[in-house]
Specification:
The complex is a heterotrimer of chains A (about 675), B (about 200) and C (about 190). Chain A has 20 helices and 17 strands. Chain A has about 675 residues and is an alpha/beta fold. In chain A, the strands form four sheets. A six-stranded mixed β-sheet of chain A has the order 1-14-13-17-15-16, with helices on both faces. Chain A starts with 17 loop residues before the first helix and ends with a helix. The relative contact order of chain A is 0.08. Chain A is extended. Chain A is about 50% helix and about 10% strand. Chain B has seven helices and four strands; from the N terminus they run αααααβαβββα. In chain B, β2 and β3 form a beta hairpin. The N and C termini of chain B lie far apart (about 100 Å). Chain C is built from nine helices and no strands. In chain C, α7 packs antiparallel against α8. Classes of the chains: A alpha/beta (about 675), B mainly alpha (about 200), C mainly alpha (about 190). At the A-B interface, α14, α18, α19 and α20 of A face loops of B.
């Protein structure tokens, strides 16, 4: 028996897991439409790789990853892309997001796919790229791209690979049922992951409230290097850092990744997805999701295609709408309320919870903190939730950060034990967002400052250069004048010389011969070079055709383009010659009177309008603006007075109002003046 | 000497005080030379808090001049882009009371980015000259465009544009920029004991 | 010998704490305790000034005033000594930590007329302390002052974000807190 450790804090909420594990995993079938959000993971949203109306096969890539921390998206079944548009998704903000909508055809036709026969012979980077292109993102709830997590630096030695089968959150049984029914796949997946990171030991951590899973896993792990470790049930032992502490006794340092203590942690769902991707070549297109709560008559787990609407699942489970007030994605501790039942299931949807009001009552209004300290006892990250709460509420984010706000895993244990029902986690989330925003702003302002200073330096330099040039010119002129004076050759005035030069130039231009000839030469030259280019391009194209290169298309278009250019050049030359021989007015290229001129005319018109308007209208406008501002200030002052704010603040407000009033008066008199005149 | 002092205590007192004064004066004089400070390092710290939009709404040509003015005792509430949070940060740094933003210099608004309606741009380069952070790209008689990531939203480019083709666009909240808001503060108004609340509900 | 000094120290820090028991130096206690960092800075400045002033005034008294029979001039000459020490400190602080200087700006000159500083100097004479004893007494008084100032600042920082009923907000709750702290320090009476 392996030694297990404990972690600080933790709670024991009612588990409510038995309801949904009685029945085996059911297939949720293929709904009529699948809605696939482009962002189902942490990181940049994927980029659509299909067009509306295109027919796709099951497993076909429909969106490509954007950047390193991103994953692709695959069609969960065959069908036609009916739309790429903004749809409601499951997100606490209730915002819409870009989704690919597939109208399914019911044939469920697979695209060609093939797994690796012997993954042990495969290269590590090859395996990682398969995992990445299979679109696997952490299935436990956070949705961090699995391939990124597995790509540990070669110099880090991984001691322990942990497969997380803890599933500590109440109600959720998706991992539990997966471990019961697909234990072999999990063990196989664990072995593949172990091959990738080469750990000293492979552990699957399971809480002791899942005896069937433990038995199934132990049977599956027989004769392999995988060890099943059980430990007492406590929330949130499924948190990555908590689980690592339970199994290894090591604490991940604040702000560090588990790899820092030689541990890689993956969810059982991810392990199965990795196994499917490597052995069978199947991308991540479906997942096991728990549908539970008293609002459904048959709570159970479904193997559901990604993109199916939650309403579809709820219907299968016997949803009683009248019983259920709000729908939760995830568990009761860390889940969030979804805006409506038609949002799609995504890679991170481990549970859909439809509780009755009695089962999960709306939280009563928050009351004052009584400093009982129960939150600090419950906190699994050994933080001081009460202090963090005060700092967040008082907007002292710097202090909150000093109290390790960013080590909070938002597990909700503190809110659970709080006798005053304070929504503590929301405070922490808001404070985190605020701190990140402040960091961004400082970064931006620093960046702007550097740019501003660079610009100032540049302007100064330019000014100095100009000044230097001017001085040099002046000096040269003086020198010349002096020399001329010395030689007593004063008749050739430099200014006169310049004027003469200019005159000569004008005369040349007036004769026209030179200029137009050069113009014609230019055109002829253009024709010649374009023809030359066309010749080389055609030669290249022929060569490519003989070799059967991939670039034929590109070359072909290149040749076509060059030919078009040649035609245009020849045409221009022809036109010019005609215009010249006809001795008409110089050919005015119609296209040169282009958008710019139009815009200039427009600008002039706008200016004229502005000039017409002013100054009476302008003054009036300014006055209106000022009045609006004054009103606002007065309102603020009244508010301040009503709220009984400090004298200093009130006086500051009053002075603002007074100054604005003066300005308004001034503007008024100005308006009258201008109107009178 | 000693006798003189012993004879006239007044001289003794005078001698003692003047002597002390001389010694201490010499000490302070030396210290003034030894610990001489130049410049005012507080300006840098103030400048770091200012948002660096270089917008001039405070009446100074840029953020650093305003920082210098603050160090010399100007009011800290003249920076609308910094907002009330900026005033608070300055107040904390300088250990003075935070005062509300001075409306005279403009109002606090959400962060904006300039956008040039490109088909209307005539390529006059006036906005390029106005931009304090070189965030506008373009050349004479060619279309200009704003590098959104560099734009500070100071709207200094709007005024010089002869064809009025520059818009200030506020950033819209998207899924990427969305964040949790602080809950309503726990107020003393809600003095409800949970069981009482249930009782009143039942009664009603 | 060692016991004497430790008793002197403990007496000055806890039992006869200058701020909370003898009620000297209350203005910086209320004025510079809004922020912990400021309080720390003030504590350090005061510790430095107090110790130095205590020693200097002792020297001045024993080697200048007493031989000349000018005991009656001690108050004014101590003020002179303290003023010089403060001025010197200000110059050093301005050079080494401009922010602290900015923060302490108003309060540093206030130390000149800080009753705790003058009080220590005069008490040294009354209690007939020798040079070492004055040094320890001054240092003890300064440590006591720093201790309560930092404690009080930490409390006020928490009060700043706490849910204080509106009539008590601001200075009022600060006074109440100071009173309670004073009561607590009364508990040290009879320790030595």
């Amino acid at each position: 028996m392996r030694q297990v450790y404990g972690f600080h804090g933790g709670i024991h909420p009612p588990e409510n897991k038995h309801q949904s594990v009685a029945a085996p995993i059911a297939d949720a079938g293929i709904p009529d439409a699948l809605v696939l959000p482009l962002s189902q993971h942490i990181g940049a949203p994927a980029i659509p790789a299909v067009e509306v109306g295109q027919h796709v096969l099951k497993g076909q890539v429909i969106a490509e990853p954007a950047g390193v921390v991103s994953v692709p998206l695959h069609a969960p079944t065959s069908g036609t892309i009916s739309a790429i548009e903004d749809r409601q998704i499951a997100h606490p903000s209730g915002h819409t997001a870009r989704c690919i909508v597939i109208a399914t055809d019911g044939k469920d036709e697979w695209i060609n796919h093939q797994g690796l026969e012997d993954y042990e012979a495969a290269d590590r980077s090859e395996l990682l790229s398969i995992i990445r292109s299979a679109g696997i993102a952490g299935m436990g709830g956070a949705g961090f791209p699995t391939a990124v997590k597995l790509a540990v630096k070669p110099e880090t030695h991984i001691e322990t690979l942990i497969i997380n089968g803890t599933e500590c959150e109440p109600y959720i049984t998706a991992d539990d049922i997966l471990m019961r029914e697909r234990a072999e796949k999990i063990v196989e997946g664990a072995e593949i992951l172990a091959h990738l990171v080469q750990p000293d030991e492979i552990l699957i951590g399971v809480e002791d409230n899942k005896p069937e899973s433990i038995v199934a896993l132990q049977a599956a792990a027989e004769g392999t290097a995988v060890e099943i470790v059980t430990f007492p049930t406590k929330y949130p032992s499924g948190g990555e850092k908590q689980l690592i502490e339970i199994l290894t006794g090591k604490q991940v340092p604040s702000g560090d990744l588990p790899a820092a203590v030689g541990v890689v942690c993956q969810n059982v769902g991810s392990a199965v997805a990795v196994r499917d991707a490597i052995i069978e070549g199947k991308p991540l297109i479906s997942r096991v999701t728990t549908v539970t709560g008293e609002g459904v008559s048959e709570p159970r787990n479904y193997d559901v295609l990604l993109g199916s609407s939650m309403a579809h699942l709820l219907e299968l489970a016997g949803y009683q709408h009248e019983k259920n007030k709000r729908l939760i994605m995830g568990g009761p501790m860390m889940g969030f309320t979804v805006p409506d039942a038609h949002v799609p299931v995504v890679k991170t949807t481990n549970c859909i919870l439809a509780p009755t009001e009695a089962e999960l009552p709306t939280p009563p209004p928050a009351q004052a903190c009584i400093r009982c300290g129960m939150c600090a006892e419950a906190c699994p990250a050994s933080l001081l939730p009460q202090q963090l709460f005060w700092f967040s509420q008082g907007k002292e984010f710097e202090k909150a950060e000093q109290h390790n706000l960013f080590d909070c895993i938002e597990c909700g244990a503190c809110s659970f034990v709080c006798p005053s029902n304070i929504p503590l986690v929301q405070y922490y989330r808001a404070a985190k967002a605020e701190v990140i925003q402040i960091r961004k702003d400082t970064e931006k302002s620093e960046h702007s400052r550097i740019r501003f200073e660079a610009r100032q330096a540049r302007l100064e330099r330019e000014d100095a250069e100009k000044e230097a040039k001017r001085a040099a010119r002046k000096k040269a002129a003086e020198e010349k004048a002096r020399l001329a004076a010395e030689q007593g050759n004063a008749e050739e005035d430099p200014i006169q010389a310049a004027i003469d030069r200019a005159k000569a130039k004008k005369a040349a231009q007036a004769s026209g011969g030179d200029a137009s000839e050069s113009e014609q030469e230019k055109l002829e030259k253009a024709v010649a070079t374009t023809r030359k280019r066309l010749n080389t391009a055609t030669a290249k194209l022929d060569a490519a055709k003989q070799e059967g290169s991939d670039f034929i298309d590109a070359l072909q278009t290149g040749v076509d383009k060059t030919r078009a250019k040649l035609d245009a050049a020849e045409q221009a030359l022809h036109d010019y010659q005609q215009a010249n021989t006809a001795n008409e007015e110089p050919a005015e290229d119609q296209s040169s009177a282009n958008a710019a001129q139009v815009a200039i005319q427009k600008a002039m018109a706008a200016r004229a309008a502005e000039a017409d308007k002013s100054p009476a209208d302008k003054a009036r406008e300014a006055l209106q603006k000022l009045e609006a501002r004054l009103q606002k200030s007065e309102a603020r002052l009244a508010e301040g007075k009503a709220a009984g704010e400090e004298e200093k603040i009130i006086s500051a407000l009053e002075s603002t109002v007074e100054r604005l009033r003066e300005k308004v008066a001034k503007a008024q008199s100005q308006t009258q003046e201008t109107e009178a005149s | 000497m000693y006798e003189l002092i012993a004879q006239y205590p007044l001289f003794a007192a005078l001698f003692a005080m003047v002597g002390l004064g001389l010694i201490f004066g010499a000490l302070l004089g030396y210290a003034a030379v030894r610990f001489k400070t130049e410049g005012n390092p507080i300006v840098d710290q103030i400048n770091e808090i200012l948002p660096q939009t270089q917008c001039g709404q405070c009446g100074h040509p840029g953020c650093r001049p305003y920082a210098e003015a603050i160090a010399d005792g100007e009011a800290i509430n003249k920076c609308p882009p910094g907002g009330q949070a900026g005033v608070q940060a300055l107040a904390d740094l300088l250990d003075v009371d935070a005062i509300p933003l001075d409306e005279e210099h403009g109002e606090e608004s959400v962060s904006q980015v300039a956008y040039i309606r490109e088909d209307e741009c005539i390529g006059c380069t006036k906005c390029i000259q106005a931009c304090p952070v070189d965030a506008i790209l373009g050349a004479a008689k060619h279309m200009h465009t704003v590098i959104a990531s560099e734009c500070t939203g100071c709207d200094l480019c709007v005024e010089p544009c002869p064809v009025d083709c520059i818009d200030m666009i506020s950033e819209e909240e998207s899924l990427q920029t969305w964040s949790w808001q602080l809950p309503d503060p726990v107020s003393r108004e809600v003095d409800i004991i949970a069981t009482d609340a249930q009782a009143t509900e039942e009664a009603a | 010998m060692l016991a004497d000094y430790s008793i002197l120290l403990i007496g000055a820090i806890l039992v006869n704490n200058f701020v909370l028991v003898q009620f000297l130096g209350l203005c910086p206690f209320m004025g510079v305790s809004n922020k912990l960092e400021t309080a720390m800075g003030m504590s350090m400045a005061t510790t430095f000034v107090l110790t130095l002033a205590s020693a200097c005034s002792n020297l001045t008294y024993h080697f200048l005033l007493q031989p000349l029979g000018l005991g009656y001039l001690k108050t004014i000459s101590f003020i002179l000594v303290i003023a010089v020490v403060v001025q010197f400190t200000e110059m050093v602080v301005r050079k080494s930590s401009p922010l602290l200087h900015r923060v302490l700006g108003v309060y540093l000159p206030l130390i000149t007329t800080n009753c705790a500083v003058l009080g220590v100097a005069l008490l040294n004479i009354n209690k007939e302390h020798n040079f070492m004893q004055s040094l320890f007494y001054g240092f003890g008084a300064a440590v006591g002052f720093s201790l309560v100032l930092v404690l009080f600042a930490a409390m006020r920082e928490r009060l700043a974000v706490a849910d204080v009923p509106s009539p008590f907000q601001g200075a009022a709750i600060g006074m109440i807190t100071a009173g309670l702290m004073s009561l607590a320090f009364m508990g040290f009476a009879g320790l030595v």
